[in-house]
Amino acid sequence: MTAKKVRVLVAKPGLDGHDRGAKVVARGLRDAGFEVIYTGLHQTPEQVAEAALQEDVDVVGLSILSGAHMTLVPKIKDLLKSNGMGDVLLVVGGIIPEDDAEELVKSGSADQVFNPGEPLDNITEYISGKFYK
Amino acid sequence: MQQLVAELLDGNRRAAARLISLVENDDPQKRELLKDIYPHTGKAYVIGITGAPGSGKSSLVDWLLKLIRKDGLTVGVIAVDPTSPFSGGAILGDRIRMQDHALDQDIFIRSMGTRGSLGGLSRATREAIQVLDAFGKDIILIETVGVGQSEVDIVKTADSTLVVLTPAGGDSVQTIKAGIMEIADIFAINKADLPGAERTTTEINLMLDMKNSEPWRPPVIQTVSVSNEGIEELWQALQKHREHMENSGRLLEIRRERVKRELTEQVEYLVKTKIWDEVKENLEFDDLVENIVHRRQDPYSTSADLLAQINFYDRGPGEGD
Fold first, then answer.
1. CA angle A50, A55, A56 (to 5 degrees)
2. Would you list which residues of chain A are within 8 Å, Cβ to Cβ, of chain B?
3. Going by DSSP bridges, is the β-strand pair A89-94/A59-64 parallel, antiparallel, or unpaired?
């Protein structure tokens, strides 16, 4: 019998069209044994939350390079909450200024923010640490 | 748990999603849950879509979703992608093409990794179908992993099977090979704007006309999913096949076969579980393994002895010593 698989939604909300980073992270998560649901570009917060619900994921990973993170992340967190998925781990990657990252985590919108240059292993180990003790 | 099934029957999407996870993760209560769900199944019509990687299955599903919804029907989609045999991880990317429908409350899309299953479906596809069936979806579309020649489990699971091919798939001998070419109720030649589409279509048609005794002759339909060509025709063909299955009694026949297989599997599962529980509880299994490794015993008479000791198996004449 296999252990429960951790499912991760990797989504790109908003308008920027750069998904290289999201794909690299998705691939890294795959190699670390996660089931990654990749939803592609230009997702609205509603689409992200609905995909998270239908796919019953444990983690939502958002990649945002557009600068709209202070709007998008709290919105998605709220939608997840109203779907009864407030306990889903929410991690953000992209170009997020330090102050904003701090604010997102402090306000409870995001659990963790990763910036460019973060080693892939740190990301997979962070998520693994939350589910596999 | 009972609560979860009640919520499912009530149309709660979160409950549907949770239940699919529970059956997929082999939850200890899986059989109990499926038992409660079963009386509410049997209404959905299941359509399988299979074909090589990148042949356009997801894009065709996306277009079909539009037409199915236009007809006022509700839909569940199960999209399967491969699980890595090395890491156990997976990239489930079929949803990308279907995200336009994410907010349609009458469409429910679920991605699944194969998790070790080799026939083109995931281990729990059948159980997930039952959940979506009880959930009240009229049509359930199953998109298999990208297949080669012989991953044909879909034909045992779907009521209609659509095989998606692309132009320039090899010479005419490929069309008469066993496996995937035999399972289609409908062929779609997708990317039909590419060179070779006419030839591929002709070759498939030639193959199909080699025998004409079958009551259903699969149509071959050219489609171009990037520009929405041939999709209406494809949906009509699927509906026509469904009519054929229903009116000819063939649907009942294949569903009976399916139940037969399911019942057999469940009996085998119970027998297996029971035997192993007993064997592990009562017998020194590891000692026996050692004996066989050192050739003091052989696996054939030892297995028969094992079962004889737990009263599960009457040793027939000629077996053992």
1. 95
2. 1-2, 4-5, 7, 26-27, 29-40, 43, 46-47, 50-51, 53-56, 83-85
3. parallel
| pLDDT per residue as tens, chain B (321 positions) | 789 999 999 999 999 999 999 999 989 999 999 999 999 999 999 999 999 999 999 999 999 999 999 999 999 999 999 999 999 999 999 999 898 898 999 999 999 999 988 889 988 999 999 999 999 999 999 999 998 878 889 999 999 999 999 997 767 777 777 788 889 999 999 999 999 999 999 999 999 998 777 899 999 999 999 999 999 999 999 999 999 999 999 999 999 999 999 999 888 888 888 888 777 776 688 888 999 999 999 999 998 888 787 765 555 555 544
For every residue of B150-219, DSSP letters joined together read S--THHHH-SEEEEEE-S----HHHHTSSSGGGS-SEEEE-STTSTTHHHHHHHHHHHHHT---SS----
* Domains of chain A from N-terminus onward: 7-131 (3.40.50.280)
ipTM of the complex: 0.93
Contacts of A84 in chain B (CB under 8 A): 14
B30 contacts on A by Cβ (under 8 Å): none
Q: Which domains does chain B have, with CATH numbers?
A: 40-248 (3.40.50.300), 258-309 (no CATH)
Instruction: Among A29, A40, A54, select the one facing B13 at the smallest CB separation.
Output: A54
Q: Nearest C-alpha of chain A: how many angstroms from B244?
A: 33
* Pairwise CB contact (< 8 Å): B92 & A53: no
